[in-house]
Amino acid sequence: MVGTRSKQPSHSGEGHLVSNILIFAVMFAIFLGAIYAVNWLTLDNVWPMAILLVAATGMYLVAFSIGRSDTTTELAKGYSHNE
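Given the sequence above, the corresponding structure tokens read:
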């Protein structure tokens, strides 16, 4: 194929196995803790829902903070992040 690069851009998590597993374990623990907090949810006690909303918002924001938004222009041009 003419004009294509032989090396494809790497994926965002490639080569980061330990950090990916650690982040997954922390996020999954927060998720399970939030589900466990819902066990006490009643109309008189709304704090478990507040815990659930804070945990969900925190996990959502962490996902955006560890993304690769700084390299989108280079990846769109076909460059890898090492170039």
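The mean pLDDT is 75. Try to locate this feature in the token string yourself.
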